[in-house]
Amino acid sequence: MTSAFEIETDFPDTETKEVLISALRQYRFIAEYKAEKYSKKCETFEAKYGMNSSLFIKKFESGEIGHEDDFFDWYAAKRGLDIMTRKLKVIEGTRI
What we know:
By secondary structure, the protein is an all-alpha fold. It has a domain at 30-92.
């Protein structure tokens, strides 16, 4: 998919491009950091409960497993990881 964006500014295109590239780099760094934190949390829960996070999500959402505090934390970590992974893919596919 290709998208076009219009940026209204009185600044030169080169300066605008530089700002956008810098912002994407900064956000990529943040997203990578968050993804790594979420991934480590998921790995800890996977080791503790002996199942991978994708299977856990299916069981949790279908009600097959209980509602322990750990499970809510694991759910949040997995969802956070999924969101950050998607954001990183968007950033990786962006060309300015």
